[in-house]
Amino acid sequence: MGQSDDVAEQSGVVALWLIPLQFSYAFQFPLQRFLQSQLKNLVTLWFSLAVLVLHAVTSWVLVYELDFGVVGAAMALDISWWVWGLGLFWYVSSGRCPQSWAGFSMQAFSGFWEFVKFSAASGVMRCLEFWSYRILILMTGSLEKATLAVDALTICMTISGWELMIHWAFLVGTGVRVANELGAGNWKATKFAAKVSMAESVFIGLCICAITIILHDKFAFIFTSSTDVIQEVGQMSYLLAMAILLNSIQPVLTGIVVGTGLQAWVAYINLFCYYIIGLPLAFVMGWIRHLGVSGIWGGMIFGGTAVQTVILAIVLIRHDWEKEAQKASQRAKKWSTPNPDNQIEEHK
Fold this sequence. Notes:
Elements: H1 5-17, H2 19-36, H3 41-65, H4 69-96, H5 112-140, H6 146-183, H7 187-214, H8 227-247, H9 250-260, H10 263-288, H11 292-317, H12 321-335, H13 340-347
């Protein structure tokens, strides 16, 4: 894809060592959602902290003590993520979730095709969005001053990625809460939860957006002492502020969509926004309009993320929440298990 031979060869080696990491995702993420749906977030938090300490130690040993270099970093990721996933599975299967885990059963395959459709749509939804921003880095690497452009874009996207973790938490929490309320048939509570999540996320985004603008020529010192890179990041800081603001809205909307089971819609929306509008606009702004890395990133922000946010908002505003609650409630009843103690109390 135009990279140097050394980079391409090293990437191939690292990619092979990261294969175990990919399988750990499939094992760990469902366990996270399983616990979050039961409000057991502290369990995930403590396991995360323990794995973070383990990861720091294994990274130091493999990278520096054993001198495995970047391969050692990949091995440390493999170990950490698998320990995390196996730890969560041990917690779930060791009797600490008695009301929701009764062991393995063939009932897990009931309605399997419907589940596959939801999961596939959700996977496509996330991949289309993430891949589009990886393509941006490849596009930036083809500019005249590629090193400077990639450095500046990487710093801005790293800051955006750190800040996005806050709103990613809102995405997960909103998705779980919306799904729970819909399953209980409480469509009014669903709308209220969505509004509260949106208000909190946007408030946090506005605060960080303001800090970014105020410190636009300072925060790059965290990563580099290069005057040219710091100046380039300062020029891109206003785009970063806009990205932060949109990131405070779009993840919450995505969380609501995930909670309502409309992942397939978002997959089509992402395909349209990021690949039909965003990437072509980034190409036009970056090369035809000669705006460089700012044009490439700005084209994706305004043509991709901004348009996606507007479309998602329109879809959800026009959504029939009461009808969706009825459908979700019917699906929930299919899996509800009568509690003998509750039946006795109701009989009394």
